[in-house]
Design a protein that fits this description.
Elements (H helix, E strand, L loop, with lengths): L1 H9 L15 E6 L22 H7 L13 E4 L16 E7 L12 E2 L11 E9 L1 E7 L7 E6 L15 E8 L19 E9 L1 E7 L9 E4 L17 E7 L21 E9 L1 E7 L18 E5 L15 E7 L1 E2 L5 E2 L3 E2 L2 E2 L3 E4 L2 E2 L9 E9 L1 E2 L2 E3 L5 E3 L3 E2 L1
Parallel strand pairs: 1-5, 6-9, 10-13, 14-23
Antiparallel strand pairs: 1-2, 3-4, 3-5, 6-7, 8-9, 10-11, 12-13, 14-15, 16-21, 16-23, 17-18, 19-20, 21-22, 24-27, 25-26
């Protein structure tokens, strides 16, 4: 009435009044769609996360879990009003794309963006749904020394499909492992549950290399196998025995060539490794028997040397002494002794070893083949003389030789 009166006072004719309306305020809700995918992920160290379920991950970490806090999740707005500033949520493992009036069957907002310049088109409360896409996760493929590392990406909560299957000479590829080569094996169908950059390490299983032994008459050694890329280890410490010889170790080449192998000898080839035994002769004592009882006429006997000498198996006998004896010639040193007490060297007769000379006069002629301490026997030959009897009748008659 007051207004009417005022108008009557102000106007002398009729006027048209326009109604002024204000939209009823309604609530606009922002749905962050935490039910799409995993609800939240931990911050901080993700070591050991691979292979755990999303539920396990929430209880696995000791570090605090980030709660997504936004400036607001509801606001009052009216029909036709410009929406204006909208929240920009963040979520670990995901990338926020847009707000949408509609929600897909999976709970994620649809790809029908609503922008800050749009007007609110409803008279009733409505909800805007966040649309998320899994983020790219940087993955470093550590080839464990086989080649340079490579970086690749996989979508969060996708699988590790199409990981490389590398090859290296001397090794079998034993799969990709999480964080270290001893970490959990990453199967190609496994889910990328770690949203942070992480490393997959190639594990290599060395192939086996055959090692064979050439003993050259020693006890046979069965072949063995060692790991490529490693060392010979205990394969280099195997012992063999050979009668009369002292084992000097294994060499990588025969004869006097090559080097002696040790536990640290590198296995850097896939070819069969051949090791060659090397020996030196065992030392034995040789006792000299001068056979002075032979004919028992050791007149003015002189040994001209010691009774015992040391010899090396497989080597030539050293020059042994040459004794002297009145009425006899020293023939040499023999390996056997006859029943008459004289050294003998008659060779092998009827399967029996009747001895052989190792030295004739002052000249050694034989190698040491007896693998033990042994005795050598002097062989003597009586000097033969011719006796002529003179009957003082100018008749000379030669007599048969006589032996002292």
């Amino acid at each position: 009435d007051d207004i009417t009166v005022l108008w009557k006072r102000s106007f002398l004719s009729e006027v048209l009044l326009d109604a002024q309306w204000t939209a009823d305020p309604v609530v606009l809700t922002y749905d962050y769609n935490f039910d799409y995918g995993d609800q939240r992920f931990p911050l901080g160290n993700t070591k050991g996360a691979y292979g755990r379920t999303l539920t396990d991950l929430r209880s696995f970490y000791v570090s605090p879990i980030k709660t997504i806090t936004l400036s607001h999740d509801q606001r009052i707005i009216g029909e036709g009003e410009v929406i204006g500033t909208m929240p920009r949520p963040e979520r670990i493992g995901y990338v926020f794309r847009n707000w949408s009036w509609t929600e897909g069957a999976d709970g994620n907002g649809k790809n029908l963006p609503v922008t800050e310049e749009d007007e609110y088109p409803y008279r009733t409360p409505k909800t805007l749904h966040a649309r998320w896409e899994p983020a790219d996760v940087k993955i470093t493929l550590d080839y464990n020394g086989a080649r340079a590392n490579v970086e690749t990406t996989r979508k969060f909560l996708a699988t590790y499909l199409s990981l490389p299957n590398p090859r290296v000479e001397g090794y079998d590829f034993d799969g990709w492992h999480y964080d270290t080569e001893d970490g959990p094996l990453v199967h190609p169908t496994a889910t990328v549950t770690n949203p942070y950059p992480h490393t997959l390490v190639a594990k290599w299983k060395p192939k086996k290399v055959m090692v064979v032994y050439m003993t050259f008459g020693g006890d046979p050694i069965p072949p063995t196998e060692v790991d490529f890329g490693g060392t010979l280890g205990t394969a280099a410490t195997v012992q063999t025995r050979k009668t009369g010889w002292v084992f000097d170790g294994w060499y990588d080449k025969p004869g006097d060539r090559g080097v002696k192998v040790t536990r640290d000898y590198p296995v850097d080839t896939m070819n069969t490794i051949v090791l060659y035994a090397r020996y030196h002769g065992h030392k034995y004592d040789v006792t000299l028997d001068y056979c002075t009882e032979y004919k028992r006429t050791a007149v003015n006997f002189e040994k001209n040397g010691n009774d015992t000498y040391q010899v090396e198996y497989g080597a030539k006998y050293p020059q042994l002494p040459v004794p002297t004896r009145d009425g006899y010639v020293f023939i040499g040193w023999a390996t056997q002794k006859g029943a008459d007490g004289n050294g003998r060297a008659d060779g092998i007769v009827g399967g029996a070893d009747l001895g052989s000379f190792v030295q004739i006069g002052d000249r050694p002629i034989l190698d040491v083949t007896e693998a033990r301490n042994h005795t050598l026997y002097a062989t003597w030959e009586a000097i033969k003389v011719k006796i002529i009897f003179d009957d003082n009748m100018n008749y000379r008659s030669p007599m048969d030789h006589e032996q002292y």
